[in-house]
Amino acid sequence: MPRDTKAQRRSGRQARLKARAAPLPVNPAPSGQRGGMYRPLADSELQAIYDTALRLLADLGMGEVPDRLRHDLIAAGARDLGGGRIGFPNALVQRSIESAAKSFTLYGRDTARDITVGDDRVYFGTGGAAVNTLDLETGGYRPSTLEDLHNFTRLQDTLDNVAWFTRCCIATDVPDMFDLDVNTAYALLRNTEKPVATAFTVAAHVDPIVRMFDIAAGGTGEFAKRPFAKAHISPVISPMRYGEDAVDVVYKCIEHNIPMSCITAAQAGATAPATLAGFLAQSLAETLASLVMVNVISPGFPMVFSNWPLVVDLRTGAFAGGGGETTVLNAASAQLSNWLGLPSGVACSMTDSKAIDAQYGVEKGMTSLAAALAGGNLIYESSGMTAALLGASFEAFILDDEMHAMTYRALRGIEVSRENLGFDNMCDAILGDGHFLGADFTYQAMERDYYYPKLADRSQPRAWEDAGGLDAWARAKAKARNVLETHHPNYLSAEADAAIRAEFNILT
Predict the structure, then answer these.
(1) Distance (Å, rounded) from C-alpha 76 to C-alpha 79?
(2) Which of 36, 69, 378, 507 is the most buried (most CB within 10 A)?
(3) CATH number, position 122
(4) Cα separation of 289 and 379, whole Å?
(5) Residue span of the structural domain in which 159 resides
(6) pTM across the whole model
């Protein structure tokens, strides 16, 4: 067979380069990969923690139970322990676990964005209520604004590895609580079609905001058919008591078919024991109290079992978002939830760092990878958060999105098959050219098995210097600026937007 000419080789190389520049036919690192490989707790330890949680609920019970909920719990089999506390017999808790939704869909307004929560599927998303924004221009922190919220929402709309969006900052320039809830929800409607989540300060805000969602969905009652927003609610306040306003919001959300994340956010050494095992037992009991409440009101209602173990620095009492304790506690929480068969939510990537630096990378990478490996279904706070949740950063959103892709690739693992082992291909390469470069076997693996970062720098030192020697923060800043300059979505029709503005005080 005649050897290839230089022209033929050049033509073949150009064709390969063109093919490689095209979008990949298969995403090598898609979201929804399966976790569960990391198991920090042995089965006997899972059982011991669960048994202690059951004992807490039965013997100590929950305090400050609102009257309406007290009535419903007693009717379902709870016991009045006296002193204002309500106990949950083991049978009631176990019945609630059995009746609870084991998986369900979080809808996007774009159906291609729908995600299924449950089993051991892993999705990174957002959360937080940062009161400060790391300014893209000055590099310093300032109070977060409504404009920031809109900008964060449309920035993340371009990030494939952020599976759902919850407001990451509080618009501190909107002092009225109703206007704040309304304008937060509006920012989500206008700037993304991913599944979203929001919060309701009080139950009275739910009806009108559902009215806004109905307008966006096309008419009265349409939102409830495919609820594209879930609610973040903390109906249990540590240690071991209910919060009346949040419980009222739970009832309202169930009335409107709004899925919810019932979030327990105890802090080790402050509102829960400093021992990690004791912390996990109390935090599990508190999240089970939310599950019992929801399933007594409406069995099987979609609820994310959001057991978020948080840590304080016991030297100062300050909240600490990073570190080994956060890493192992949230992984253990995911493991516990999966062991119970419940859709899990944990909180990771909450770095204490104020800058985009080595501390930032270590704390985010450790905590988010461990939670994913443990099989946390929804990993909150995982995008954009800095300064122990007090800050949000545009650059961080860009960097975290790439980190998530690498995590998804790690979760995907290694596919071992006769084709992938490639005995014949090895023989051909070793007895032929003596290398694997340019072979079809290599090219296929390149497209299928490898994730190529869009932001991380892999060039040689001299090439990096010649290109300006930019660090990751600078590269992320440039990309964030470009997105904010060019991506201006409006996912509301002119008619829907006008109808919303006629009914609500929209401030942008």
Answers:
(1) 9
(2) 378
(3) 3.20.20.480
(4) 21
(5) 97-412
(6) 0.93
